[in-house]
SDR family NAD(P)-dependent oxidoreductase (Shewanella marisflavi), 238 residues
Amino acid sequence: MNVMITGATSGIGQQLALAYAKAGDKVLACGRSQAKLATLTASQPNISGLCFDLLQYDSYPQPDPNQGPLDLLILNAGDCEYIDDALNFDAERFDKIININLISIGYALQAWLPLMAPGGRLVLISSSAQLLALPRAEAYGASKAGLSYLARVLAIDLAKHDIAVTLVHPGFVQTPLTDRNTFAMPMIISAESAAETIVRGIAKGKSEIRFPRLFVFMMRLLALLPFPLWRRLALRMV
């Protein structure tokens, strides 16, 4: 199987790349750091690398056509920054997060969906944060909510092309991104555990993968609350 993964030099993306390579699949790992890609490709002979910046929309590289069509395309790359002062809204930060987490996905789809084999699968890594309006998450939450909507529409529109779509909603996962957080992260799991759950879900053909189950269940229950009640609870978190 030919697998392409963005954001493959750290966190969930890296663990997914290693998992598929160890299973014997050919993995095309994408990232911005040539040094990190070199380390990753040296660790597994089944991994090759593509170094580029997803925000450079006009320079998305094409995989080697001799490798054959893509069977699995995992769009995992993303970033998280918070809006610390909503009154003095940081539009530049908002623009940055929306672009990497959502707009770049559109350019990736334009570049690589035509390379997918019939019967292939597109995987989009969103976040459980899209379920609730969370303090300071104007940029991150909005980008992930948009990504989840996009994935569900693609699941309808790509069916006629025999391309399946899997949407992933992780909770807190130990990665370089979450290492920057200064608040409590309940039920946080390792990137290895997250990758294992995603790989199992993809193998089962799941349309949505949510984890940890208890954390997501609690988030979905809170999302059922009337917004004024949730707003009062959220204000206590600030």
